[in-house]
Amino acid sequence: MKSQLQDLYKRTGLTKESCFFASRRIGKHDSLSLWSLTTLAFCLIIISMITQVYKDNSFVIEYIKFINFSITSMSVFALVISVLIQKSNFALRSDKYRNQAMEISELRISFKHLIDSPSANGKSQEDLYVEKSEKYAEILNRNLVHEQIDYLVTNSEGIENKYYSARLFVTEYLGYWGIIAVTLSLLSWVSLGVLTAV
């Protein structure tokens, strides 16, 4: 029965680390989504102001249709992003993952010292295992379950860890950086075009 308790201790440790990582991952989503939305809104305002102030500029006259189209489509995109951010509840989900990890950590602490003792408070190792397994199952059933990528990143090493980390970046965060890059590129293009045509 000692090996079952050790196995439970190991499983709870893996889940705890995965939940903490999930909390950080969702927290990054929260930060990056707000940064991308803020950058998008800021650039749209500045581009609109530039086209209004420099409406007689040869660059603005030549590219006004494209600039207006870009502003309109980016405005729609900003609306979609804001709805997705609101619907996703990133901050709330991040807190839930963190709280789940804290509960699992408390559970692990409650029986770690009992793994090597033959009985604890008059309970056999088997009774202790059943009790702690039920508590663990209750925590998992009550909360969110982390995603597979959380487990893969936290439980891999070396080149495998780098692969999963890169995969995480590409599949989860690259879109935010793309939005920021495209928005800043459009702002730079309009600003430099207006300045060179002055």
SSE topology sketch:
Blueprint: H1 2-53, H2 58-88, H3 90-112, E1 119-120, E2 123-124, H4 125-142, H5 148-154, H6 158-197
Helix pairs in contact: 1-2, 1-3, 1-4, 1-5, 1-6, 2-6, 3-4, 5-6
Contiguous uncertain segments of 5+ residues: none
Can you tell me the overall shape? elongated
| Main pleated sheet | 2 strands, antiparallel
What is the number of E strands?
Answer: 2
**Main sheet strand line-up:** 1-2
Order of helices and strands: HHHEEHHH
Number of helices: 6
Strand content bin:
under 5%
Overall SS class: mainly alpha
- Terminal residue distance: 81 Å
Mean pLDDT: 89
Helix content: over 70%
> Mind telling me the C-alpha Rg?
26 Å
Number of separate structural domains: 1
What are the key terms here?
86% helix, two-stranded antiparallel ribbon, 198 residues, mainly alpha, single chain, 6 helices
Short description:
By secondary structure, the chain is mainly alpha-helical.
Explain how this protein is built.
The chain is built from 6 helices and 2 strands. The protein has 198 residues and is an all-alpha fold. It has one domain. It has a two-stranded antiparallel ribbon. Strand 1 and strand 2 form a beta hairpin. Helix 1 runs antiparallel to helix 3, helix 2 packs antiparallel against helix 6 and helix 3 runs antiparallel to helix 4. The radius of gyration is 26 Å and the shape is elongated. It starts with a helix and ends with a helix. The mean pLDDT is 89.
